[in-house]
Amino acid sequence: MTQGTVSAMATLSDDEVAAVSSPGVGPHPQPWPDDPRYDRTLLADGDRRNVADVYRYWTVEAIVADLDTRRAPLHVAIQNWEHDFNIGSIVRTANAFNVAGVHIVGRRRWNRRGAMVTDRYLHVHHHPDAAALLAWLAEHGVTPVGVDNIPGSVPLETQALPERCCLVFGSEGPGLTGELAAGCERVVAISQHGSTRSLNAGAAAAIAMYHWSLQWPPANRGQVPFPFTRSG
User: Fold this and answer.
1) Domain enclosing residue 134, as ranges
2) Position 211 in a domain
3) Residues 129 and 161 in one domain
4) How far apart (Å, rounded) are the C-alpha atoms in residues 156 and 140?
5) 72 forms bridges with which residues in the sheet?
């Protein structure tokens, strides 16, 4: 490359980005497991996906089926008006807490790069507007709780959240729209003690999901905690 020129950088696919971030494991030694959950291509080539060790070499369908046996009754909704890069981060966190569903409100296309392909193991729903989301939640007996530091919000740390709950987040910057905030059973805010006006949406979502999980851990829901570990 000559001085003063810039070489073109190849664009990595979502799978390639995930592989770089999670080195994973190489080909499975012979003999291979005689189990339909295993993907023979992954057994032969190795598994470099961003998955827990217990799911190494499993097909996507087998992983989803196993996760479905112990989904948390928590849902997460995100307003998608500006192709917000934080949505991917929120989706990845939702996967970590094995939520029952993720709801994208507004634009159908969303920025998946930060999700590191973890959305493949979740049930992702799309709603064209706030009214459609609220109708779906009401039909399924799920209580919407907004998360935003707006007038009328109450401190998250003082709240007992419903078990069948949907944490609702706005886009980075604008936050929750008035229509969606009004449709929530309540709006909670994360108390802050510094000079910044607000937390990054992805960080706020992680804190809110963790707060819910402290109140409704697997043991309280009749489940045994799953021994997730990571390799690589």
Assistant:
1) 71-219
2) yes
3) yes
4) 24
5) 99
Per-residue pLDDT of 146-193, as tens digits, reads 999 999 999 999 999 999 999 999 887 778 999 999 999 999 999 989
Residue 59 phi/psi, 5-degree rounding, is: -70, 160
Q: How many angstroms separate the CA atoms of 208 and 204, rounded?
A: 6
| Residue closest to 147 by CA, chosen among 188, 190, 191, 89 | 188
Angle at the Cα of 72 (from 168 to 86), degrees rounded to 5? 40
Give yes or no: residues 85 and 128 share one domain: yes
* Token digits of residue 76: 């997460």
Within the chain, strands assigned E span: 72-80, 99-106, 124-127, 143-147, 154-155, 165-169, 186-189
Give the tokens for residue 220.
């309280």
How do residues 96-146 score in pLDDT, each as one tens digit?
Answer: 999 999 999 987 676 666 678 889 999 999 999 999 999 999 999 999 999
Residue 9 confidence class, pLDDT cut points 50, 70, 90: very low
- Give the pLDDT band of residue 1 (cuts 50, 70, 90): very low
* Residues in Cβ contact with 32 at an 8 Å cutoff, skipping those fewer than 6 apart: 38, 40, 43
Whole-model pTM over 0.90: no
3-class DSSP assignment, residue 171: strand
Is the same domain home to 58 and 154? no
